[in-house]
Amino acid sequence: MQAFLLPCRCGADISVTSSQAGGRATCPVCGGVEPVPRLRDLEKLRVVKTPPPSRRDSGAGRPWTGMHSLVLAGTLLAATAGLGSFSFTPPEAELFDEDTIRSSVMKAPIDEVYTAWATRLIYSSVERMPTELEAKSRARSDYYYNLRNSLRAAAGMGALVALTGVVGVLARGKANGR
User: Fold this and answer.
1) Based on the domain organization, do 70 and 42 belong to the same domain?
2) Domain that holds residue 86
3) Cα–Cα distance between 153 and 81 in angstroms, integer?
4) What confidence category does residue 58 fall into, taking pLDDT thresholds of 50, 70 and 90?
5) What is the Cα–Cα distance from 139 to 40, expressed in whole angstroms?
6) What is the pLDDT of residue 81?
7) Residue 22 buriedness (CB in 10 A; 0-12 / 13-18 / 19+)
């Protein structure tokens, strides 16, 4: 915003802007209050000559670099993949048909059934082919496990990329003396 120099009665100049037009300004030297001309009359005052801002003093800060892009991209990847991994939890094991299980047990040799019962079914070795429903449930569960683990790996990679970018930005800032 352009500033103008309003002369005070004490001889000092008061810096005013167009947003103060028609109001009052206080002199920083004597503390006197001077009326600020209306907007159309401000152009009759002297304009404040400001030196161009130096690179260090600019409000823009440091220029955007490739390392900043790494930080942004890595952070976005880590956040979206990490949050996405929580939404892909494997489905609970589906209840299977009791008759199918009963018939499988009836077909198994009696010593295997007894061994399974004796070990409280923890170490059951009753061999049978999975039903179509069991196979589909296992495939669905494996798919969700793999998807969730892939998203977690992508989140880890994103965090690593972001960390690399942060180290690069800090190293560049230290090299430039900032």
Assistant:
1) no
2) 66-96+131-175
3) 8
4) very low
5) 78
6) 92
7) exposed
